[in-house]
Each structure stands twice: as C-alpha cells, then as structure tokens.
C-alpha cells in the first residue's frame, strides 16, 4: 500500500479478532497496488468512530468500503445507511459458524443495499476482487491488471489431477 496516496478503498472490521480473516483482502489490494486503509471500527462498541468514518468516507475520496463483521453483524448495513458508497459486506465466522453473520449482512431492508460475500477469508478475497472490478471501470491500468490476474488464474489450474 502506498501510504502517500489517498486511499481508494476502506477496509473496516468489527474487531481485532477479525483481522486474520480480513487480511487476504488487504493482500489482494496490495498485489494490485491499490491504496487502501484498514481500521477496526465497530457499529456497537465504537459508535462515534463508526459514524465519523462512514459519513466522511466519500468526501475523503474513498470509492468502496469493505466491511467485515461477525455474529450480530450490523457493521456493513449501518455503514451503507450512512454513506452512498458501495459497501461490500464480509461475514466473519462465529459461534454459529458465521451463518448468523451471513444472514445479518444479507437480509437488508429494501432501499439500503449491501453486497454480501462468503464467510471468512474467501469472502474477504472476493470482496477485494469485487472492489477491484468496480475500480477497473474508471481506471485502465487497474483494468489491464485485472485481465492479467484472471488469465493467470486459469494458467495456475492444472488440467490433469496430480497423484
Ligand atoms: C463482531 O463481533 C466482530 O466483527 C467479531 O467478528 C465479533 C466478535 O468480536 P470479539 O468479541 O472477538 O471482539 O463485532
């Protein structure tokens, strides 16, 4: 991540305990050299931090927000209620294996959209790739890198299974 650049993507998570499952999103964005920031912001425990962040996000130049939360996972939904930016919700695993998180994020009332990804690190990685797809519509360099990434994925899958 280039720290001198204004972040294009904001990654927020409800707790430090989420970080190991959220880090793959940051790793992908780094791979694409996309400026981003990672912050612990809870919709329940840090309400002022959260509302300041969500309300100022667009003005600060962010284009997409990834929001990861587990259990009663209100962070993505409440963030989407406070900003017009696209919010990509990532359910974290939980005592109920993340099904509670998944449903909390997916079952938004009409009018306040949140894109919902799969539970845990695969969801984090895909949310980052989805953010990259959004950004690629406005940036030719990102679009070329994305095409290369997609092509390379096929090259990395062997045609024949190994013993
Ligand atoms: C949520 O509660 C967080 O996103 C996390 O997934 C879950 C548990 O948080 P900790 O009790 O580990 O801080 O808000």
Plain-language structure description:
The structure is a single chain. With 163 residues, the protein is of the alpha/beta class. Helix content is 44%, strand content 15%. The protein is built from six helices and five strands. It has helices spanning 19-31, 47-56, 75-82, 99-106, 121-136, 140-155; strands at 9-13, 36-40, 64-70, 87-92, 115-116. It has a five-stranded parallel sheet with strand order 2-1-3-4-5, sandwiched between helices. α1 (19-31) runs parallel beside α5 (121-136) and α5 (121-136) crosses α6 (140-155). It is globular, with a radius of gyration of 16 Å. 5-O-phosphono-beta-D-ribofuranose binds at residues 13-15, 17-18, 42, 69-71, 92.
């Amino acid at each position: 991540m280039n720290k001198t650049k204004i972040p294009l993507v904001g990654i927020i998570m409800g707790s430090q305990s989420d970080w190991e499952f959220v880090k793959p999103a940051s790793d992908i964005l780094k791979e694409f050299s996309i400026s981003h920031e990672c912050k612990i912001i809870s919709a329940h425990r840090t309400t002022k931090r959260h509302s300041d962040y969500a309300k100022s996000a667009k003005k600060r130049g962010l284009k997409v927000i990834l929001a990861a939360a587990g259990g009663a996972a209100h962070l993505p939904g409440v963030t989407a209620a406070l900003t017009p930016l696209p919010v990509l919700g990532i359910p974290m695993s939980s005592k109920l294996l993340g099904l509670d998180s998944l449903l909390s994020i997916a079952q938004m009332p009409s009018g306040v959209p949140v894109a919902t990804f799969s539970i845990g690190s695969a969801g984090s990685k895909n949310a980052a790739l989805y953010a990259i797809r959004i950004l690629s519509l406005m940036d030719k360099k990102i679009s070329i890198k994305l095409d290369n990434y997609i092509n390379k994925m096929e090259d990395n899958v062997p045609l024949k299974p190994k013993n």
